[in-house]
Design goal:
The protein has 114 residues and is of the alpha+beta class. 21% of the residues lie in helices and 19% in strands. Strands 1-4-3-2 form a 4-stranded mixed beta sheet.
């Protein structure tokens, strides 16, 4: 098979709940600036929110106002997102961990992977 040469990842799109919940999490908790919004070009009832993780790439989130927050864990199915890892300083890590804790958002805490 011939290799396909990409120039990198342009963005990753996740399914979110409503608009404000998504902005509150990505910008409010994680500190990623909300850049802009456009309609989801495939599903006009959804919005497509863009956030800047700070490395020149994008995290985008599809939202719908009739979608509610669901804290049920997603199954580990084929095609599901397992996790996204960001490179951050120790200070930023601590700040985000404190923000998650203050909002009662579960997380695994610090894990030393060597």
């Amino acid at each position: 098979m011939k290799k396909v040469q990409t120039q990198g990842v342009h963005h990753i799109t996740l399914i979110g709940a409503d608009r404000q919940t998504s902005i509150d999490f990505w910008e409010g908790v994680l500190g990623m600036p909300f850049i802009f919004e456009q309609p989801n070009l495939d599903v006009p009832e959804e919005s497509h929110l863009y956030f800047d993780p700070g490395d020149g790439m994008l995290i985008t989130v599809f939202t719908r106002e009739d979608r509610k927050v669901d804290s049920t864990p997603n199954p580990e199915g084929i095609g599901n997102l397992h996790h996204i890892a960001f490179t951050v300083s120790r200070a930023t890590y601590t700040q985000v961990r404190e923000r998650l804790d203050a909002r009662g958002i579960k997380h695994p805490g610090e894990i030393d992977r060597g």
